């Protein structure tokens, strides 16, 4: 009998229960895979920068391509003013990417398939960008909600729409990543269950779908990390350059 496809998203405690004022901060399987993702990132990029050569090896090439990719993304979206935030954008992209990719391994846990994880990341970005905007421009940052060239009659309505759009950023940013990862893994589990249920004779069709879905999900894992990072750059661009 095929297992419930939603069981793969269950969060369970690893080790003893830890509470602070009735708040459970116990170490879980989600915590474990976030730590594993962080360690893998550190290992990969430390190995990539350990022995620098004119003709780079595989790890050095991966590190250099990643650096160039994120650097170009920031330059294209936030301009030269975004360069000081390279470390944060780079770390954010790599964390989301490796969490997505590690979640593709058998018996692994996909951290980004949980809305609480993606929302905390998105909320931190939203608060950080807003703080940067007010530090850079003071109350002038509020001009972001007043687009230029709008007729006076429509201005109140446009301002309300702009404010709602701005406040919805952490929701749209977090839900997009969470929904894509959860939906993809659920579909993979469903088709995997069909393969087991139908056996070797009738399972070839769902098996072919599973293989295709796996390839698609790997692409989605990369694209969702890219979208998460580039939207962060766009929000940062608004805060730094105040386009309105």
Describe this structure in words.
The chain has 244 residues and is an all-alpha fold. The protein has one domain (7-241). Helices cover 69% and strands 2% of the residues. It is built from 7 helices and 2 strands. The protein has a two-stranded antiparallel ribbon. A hairpin with a 2-residue loop joins β1 and β2. The longest helix is centred in the C-terminal third of the chain and has 38 residues, at 204-241.
Show the helix and strand layout:
Blueprint: E1 19-20, E2 23-24, H1 29-50, H2 58-78, H3 86-102, H4 115-137, H5 155-167, H6 169-202, H7 204-241
Antiparallel strand pairs: 1-2
Helix pairs in contact: 1-2, 1-3, 2-3, 2-7, 3-7, 4-6, 4-7, 6-7
Q: Short description, anyone?
A:
The chain is mainly α and 244 residues long. It is 69% helix and 2% strand.
């Amino acid at each position: 009998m095929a297992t419930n496809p939603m069981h793969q998203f269950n969060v369970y405690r690893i080790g003893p229960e830890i509470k602070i004022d009735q708040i459970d901060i116990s170490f879980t399987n989600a915590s474990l895979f976030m730590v594993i993702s962080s360690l893998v990132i550190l290992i990969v990029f430390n190995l990539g920068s350990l022995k620098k050569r004119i003709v780079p090896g595989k790890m050095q090439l991966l590190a250099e391509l990643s650096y160039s990719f994120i650097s170009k993304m920031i330059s294209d979206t936030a301009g030269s003013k975004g360069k000081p935030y390279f470390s944060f954008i780079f770390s954010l992209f790599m964390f989301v990417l490796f969490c997505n990719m590690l979640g593709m391994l058998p018996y692994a846990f996909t951290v980004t398939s949980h809305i609480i994880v993606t929302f905390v990341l998105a909320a931190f970005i939203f608060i950080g960008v807003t703080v940067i905007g007010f530090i850079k421009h003071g109350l002038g940052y509020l001009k972001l909600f007043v687009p230029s060239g709008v007729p006076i009659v429509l201005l109140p309505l446009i301002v309300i729409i702009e404010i709602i759009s701005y406040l919805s950023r952490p929701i749209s940013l977090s839900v997009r990543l969470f929904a894509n990862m959860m939906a993809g893994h659920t579909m993979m589990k469903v088709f995997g269950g069909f393969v087991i249920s139908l056996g070797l004779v009738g399972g070839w069709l769902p098996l072919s779908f599973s293989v295709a879905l796996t390839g698609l999900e790997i692409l989605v894992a990369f694209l969702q990390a890219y979208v998460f990072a580039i939207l962060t750059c766009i929000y940062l661009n608004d805060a730094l350059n105040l386009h309105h």
